[in-house]
């Protein structure tokens, strides 16, 4: 319920439910936006620029992998990026949780590592991509390294936050039952920090996608980043747009899933990135 | 050995906790530099320059003015893009908070754009606006505007009903309502979005320098990478990291400044 706009109900010419009206409004807005896109590009931009009609025409060909031989295929690229993203996420999350736990529980580790973690978190990771080509060559390792780093940093910082805000009496009770350090770390601190992992997950996914696409572009690896830039540069913009839309849909789905998980599992956690 | 000597406590150096902590941090930094130096000494110059080589490359770039030029160019791009993103994001966010139909209609598309890696749209922008400064500013704006817009919109929508009712009971006109109640209330939310926008705009700045006309810090990185000159590349990365850390600290400070009245809310 908005306080700024008086909560008048929308006029109901068709007598539909509120929810249906909203959906119709959203679809109508989408149609208007597509129309604007089509008209403006047709009128003002060069012929090769993508517009809804050409994208719709290219869509079945792209999805069926009908491309000139030698050019990257859509599904191959999508799979390559997805696999790399998942691998990097896995490595980053595991490493991030471990390092975050360590930094949260051991003041020594905290003091030693804090500066580096904060500096790397602030730095745009794509600054590291060209250097990594010198270290790892033009190989898949560059993308994996960037993606892992991108996932590691937000998770590490969030787990650190979560471990530090662990209520002290949990640990005290455990100690009075003679818990060992591994009980404390993995039985108390780790489960307590899982909500923070979820909160950092969204940020991690965003960084993973950016890192993967940029790495693919710089290193010319098979993947959506390379596919998009390749098709963009060879004037195959409608095909390129299919990949862009795919990335958009993926981003939305992942965010929605994270949102749902946060709301279901951690209703008390305030969203603060 | 007299009895007095045996009971005297040994003089000890008392180091306060805070100094201890800071000391360990400094130790960590020194250790990092040492590790850097060691790795650099044992690998080829074209793979990993030593810490000292990087610092001297950094000094060389500063003296020759190359670094200042690059910084100026990049910051001009970043600043323009971020400024436009802040203004547009704030205004459109307020507009969407006010006009319900627009908001309901546009919300899914805005969220979609927020979740998309904007890097994917750079070739599209290139085809419309070219390679040069104008296109790069648009890219930086596209990267940075979405968190600002969304946060402003959510902030303006969540204005406390009590505040509005009090203003209305004093017969406040609509412009006064905006100026004295809604905008001050929204600013902390906007600043949270600006902080996220700063981080995203930095990525946009580098991405546009990679994909469009290479200038500034991105150009430094690309050129020296092509020359296998890791000393200069790592120096440039160091500069970017420093710049990013400073900008993020500024962003956090601004956010905290604007949110200071919210402490009890």
Which key terms come to mind for this protein?
heterodimer, A: 273 residues, mainly alpha, MetI-like fold, 2 domains, 10 helices, 76% helix, flat, B: 265 residues
Describe what you observe in this structure.
- The complex is a heterodimer of chains A (273) and B (265).
- Chain A is mainly α and 273 residues long.
- Chain A folds into two domains: 1-45, no CATH class; 74-265, MetI-like fold.
- Chain A is 76% helix and 0% strand.
- Chain A has ten helices and no strands.
- Chain A is flat.
- Chain A starts with 17 loop residues before the first helix and ends in an 8-residue tail after the last helix.
- The model of chain A has no long low-confidence stretch (mean pLDDT 84).
- The radius of gyration of chain B is 26 Å and the shape is flat.
- Chain B has helices at residues 3-7, 17-42, 51-63, 66-98, 100-115, 122-129, 133-157, 161-169, 174-211, 216-226, 230-258.
- Chain B is 80% helix and 0% strand.
- Chains A and B meet through helix 1, helix 4, helix 5, helix 8 and helix 9 of A and helix 2, helix 5, helix 6, helix 9 and helix 10 of B.
Shape of chain A: flat
Alpha carbon gap, first and last residue of chain B = 67 Å
Order of helix and strand elements from N to C terminus of chain B: HHHHHHHHHHH
Major sheet of chain B: size, sense and barrel closure? none
Oligomer category: heterodimer
Query: Which structural class do you get from the secondary structure elements of chain B?
Result: mainly alpha
Rg of chain A computed from alpha carbons, rounded to a whole number of angstroms: 24 Å
The CATH topology assignment of the largest domain in chain B is MetI-like fold
**CATH C-level category of the largest domain in chain A:** Mainly Alpha
Radius of gyration of chain B: 26 Å
Taken together, the total number of domains of chain B comes to 2
Unreliably modeled segments of chain B: none
What percent strand of chain A?
Answer: under 5%
Average pLDDT taken over every residue of chain B: 87
What's the count of strands of chain B? 0
Query: What's the tally of helices of chain A?
Result: 10
Question: What is the CATH top level name of the largest domain in chain B?
Answer: Mainly Alpha
Count of helical segments of chain B?
A: 11
Question: CATH homologous superfamily of the largest domain in chain A, by name?
Answer: MetI-like
Largest interface: A-B, 67 and 70 residues
């Amino acid at each position: 319920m908005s306080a700024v706009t008086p909560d008048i109900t929308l006029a109901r010419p068709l007598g539909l439910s509120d929810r249906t009206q909203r959906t119709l409004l959203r679809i109508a807005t989408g149609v208007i936006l597509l129309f604007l896109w089509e008209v403006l590009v047709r009128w003002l931009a060069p012929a090769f620029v993508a517009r809804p009609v050409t994208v719709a025409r290219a869509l079945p060909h792209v999805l069926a992998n009908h491309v000139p031989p030698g050019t990257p295929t859509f599904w191959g690229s999508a799979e390559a990026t997805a696999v790399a993203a998942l691998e990097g996420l896995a490595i980053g999350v595991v490493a991030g949780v471990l390092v975050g736990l360590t930094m949260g529980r051991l003041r020594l580790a905290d003091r030693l590592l804090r500066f580096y973690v904060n500096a790397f978190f602030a730095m745009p990771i794509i600054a590291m991509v060209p250097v990594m080509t010198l270290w790892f060559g033009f190989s898949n390792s560059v993308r994996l390294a960037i993606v892992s780093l991108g996932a590691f940093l937000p998770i590490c910082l969030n787990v650190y936050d979560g471990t530090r805000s662990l209520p002290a009496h949990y640990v005290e009770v455990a100690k009075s039952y003679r818990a060992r350090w591994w009980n404390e770390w993995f039985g108390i601190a780790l489960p307590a920090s899982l909500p923070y992992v979820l909160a950092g997950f969204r940020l991690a996914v965003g960084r993973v996608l950016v890192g993967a696409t940029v790495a693919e572009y710089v290193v010319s690896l098979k993947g959506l980043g390379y596919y998009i830039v390749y098709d963009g540069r060879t004037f195959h913009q409608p095909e390129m747009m299919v990949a862009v839309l795919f990335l958009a849909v993926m981003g939305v789905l992942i965010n929605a899933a994270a949102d749902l998980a946060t709301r279901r599992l951690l209703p008390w956690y305030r969203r603060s990135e | 050995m007299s009895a007095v000597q045996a009971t005297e406590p040994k003089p000890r150096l008392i180091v306060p906790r805070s100094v201890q902590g800071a000391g360990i941090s400094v130790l960590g930094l020194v250790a990092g530099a040492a590790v850097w130096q060691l790795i650099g000494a044992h690998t080829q110059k074209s793979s990993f320059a030593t810490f000292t080589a990087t610092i001297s490359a950094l000094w060389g770039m500063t003296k020759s003015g190359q670094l200042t030029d690059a910084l100026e160019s990049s910051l001009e791009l970043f600043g323009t893009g971020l400024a436009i993103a802040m203004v547009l994001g704030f205004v459109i966010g307020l507009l969407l908070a006010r006009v319900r139909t627009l908001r309901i209609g546009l919300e899914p598309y805005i969220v979609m754009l927020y979740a998309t890696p904007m890097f994917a749209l750079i070739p599209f922008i290139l085809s419309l606006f070219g390679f040069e400064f104008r296109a790069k500013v648009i890219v930086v704006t596209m990267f940075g505007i979405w968190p600002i817009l969304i946060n402003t919109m959510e902030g303006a929508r969540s204005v406390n009903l009590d505040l509005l009712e009090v203003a209305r009971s004093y017969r406040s006109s609509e412009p006064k309502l905006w100026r004295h109640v809604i905008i001050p209330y929204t600013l902390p939310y906007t600043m949270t979005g600006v902080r996220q926008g700063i981080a995203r705009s930095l990525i946009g700045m580098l991405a546009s320098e990679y994909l469009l006309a290479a200038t500034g810090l991105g150009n430094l990185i690309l050129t020296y990478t092509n020359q296998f000159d890791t000393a200069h590349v790592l120096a440039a990365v160091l500069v970017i990291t420093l710049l990013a850390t400073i900008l993020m600290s500024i962003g956090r400070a601004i956010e905290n400044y604007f949110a200071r009245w919210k402490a009890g809310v």
